[in-house]
Amino acid sequence: MSADALAAPRPRRPRARVLVRVAPGLLLTLLALAGPLLAPHPLDRPVTAPYADPGGPAPLGGDQLGRDVLSRMLYGGSELIGGALLVALLVTAVATVLGCFAVLRPTLGRLLERGADLAILLPPVLGMMLLALAWPGGGRLAVIVAAVALGIPYAVRVVASAAAPVAACGFIEAATASGERLWYLALREILPNLRATVLALFGLRFVAAVYVISMAGFLQLGPQPPEADWALMIRENAAGALLNPWVVLVPGAAIGLLAVSVNLAADALAPTAGRTAVTAR
Amino acid sequence: MSEAETARAEAATDEVAASAPRRAVSLAARIAVVLAKRAVLLSVLLAVVFAAIELLPGDAASAAAERGESPADTAARRHLLGLDRPLWERFGDWMTALPTGDLGTSARGERVTDLLSAPLPNTLLLGGAAFALTLASALALGCWAAARPGGPADRLIGLASTVTLALPEFVVSVGLLLLLSLWTGWLPAATMTTSDGSPASWTMLIMPVLALAVPQTGWNARIVRGALADQAAAPHVIAAHLDGLPPRRVLLRHALPGAWPAIATGAATSTGMLLGGAVVVETLFNYPGLGTVLAGSVADRDTPVIAGVVACTGAVISLVLLGADLVRARTLGARP
Q1: Closest-CA residue in chain B for A236?
Q2: Which tens digit of pLDDT belongs to each residue from B33-61?
Q3: ABC transmembrane type-1 domain spans which residues (chain A) (predicted)?
Q4: I need a labelling partner for A14 at 20 to 30 A (CA). Which of B9, B72, B80, B147 fits?
Q5: Chain A environment of B183 (Cβ under 8 Å)
Q6: Per-position b or e across B181-208, b if 16+ CB within 10 A of its CB
């Protein structure tokens, strides 16, 4: 703990509140990542009757092939969350670099602005269908590539709008006048002043990535049937929801909880001043 | 907008004060510029989609091929469909036919206009109803929260909108299905269609509309609340408050008008999410809309059908964005 936090008790309360809001997302992520280690059954072996009631070998009942819902649940989350984390990291990193360059080179900035205008006209689900099917064997990787490509235009806009006032500061002008190169200006002079924006952007991109990747799973664009993806479980088992409601209720609740808790965490991490700019989708 | 355009627009605003006919002309010019910009953006998007489909492995001729067909047969069909012509030539033909309402012919030889004529109105009905519900409930919730800043209602609405805005539509759908259909039996779980391809009963629209509207309401309620909070700090709103006007009147007559541009932009960005979400929700509820057409045509590499769907959704989104532009122009024009 830093000295100023000890000296002044006031900043502690918001920090505790941030922790309370970040904890559920963190806990759920860790649980889902550790899930495969806790599963009592392998993900693809039938252990009970199709759509069996909870009980016996399957605490949450069976799915359409009689496989254990609980085990499939525990297997299904890690790749969704891992994929979403990867997408959020890539989008944030690329957008941060592009955004910093965009404010220093107006031509590039205008080009990226037009790209974002264009991306608004293509709903993410349509774009994802196009890109994921462009690469039939791509599976989860194709979805990740699509999610990164679709996420970048908005993210660049957010970084560029936060970087614009920084780029107009005197120390940037001084550095430009002393002949510093473009990459040095972008990464060493501008970027360190955007930490709060970049952190908030990462959180929001994680939320968006959970949305896009689970949507792709539901449309059967990414992971293919033997896999135990939460969104895919809902799609596969929707017909048997009346026989064993748990088989769609539990993965649905898991995705819902993940989306909500990650969003609460991103919201708590966002700087209050930059919030309106950062939430722009 | 380029600098020259901005300068021209500013010059036009100065002249607005001069005379009424001039004002009408400058408004028309402004609308024409905005329309042209949207049209250019839409055609660039369509060109990108055409090129993207062209880059996919396989084309419509091989996707429609039957088992045991010789390469010569596939080549013959490729020629029949005109796929051996250069991409730009096909794109040019398609774009020039577009203004006449002709969306081309699908790989199976059907007219794309016929293919989309039944599902498109269904999807627009679904999306439109969800849009109306979203806007109404977001405005009501946002104003309610803004009327008592920091109060329990404000905090509750803030939390509820943060929670709902991140939910994928299909998760909301599953919850609604279990709650309203499987456990209570109040609403039908799947959509039946009449002979002309429209939903048989309006009750079949309730759950898809709710599933689309709930996340977008969360998103828009936050924007309404934020825009009203920004307006509450504006001098004329503070003045109205200090004059002792009732809080309700200050909120609706003084704060809300200035908040319209932000609200309109927020609602416009929801359009794409609503149309995209509709594709997913249609799958779950078996609703006869664009989602079904799209899923089949993407698998078939059917460029004209995909381009037709993207053109339709893009045109709808463009129109809503245009509406948002006009709201912004009007609000800013009224109060310079």
Answers
A1: B284
A2: 878 888 888 888 888 877 777 776 656 66
A3: 81-266
A4: B147
A5: 245
A6: beeeeebbbebeeeeeeebeeeebbbbb
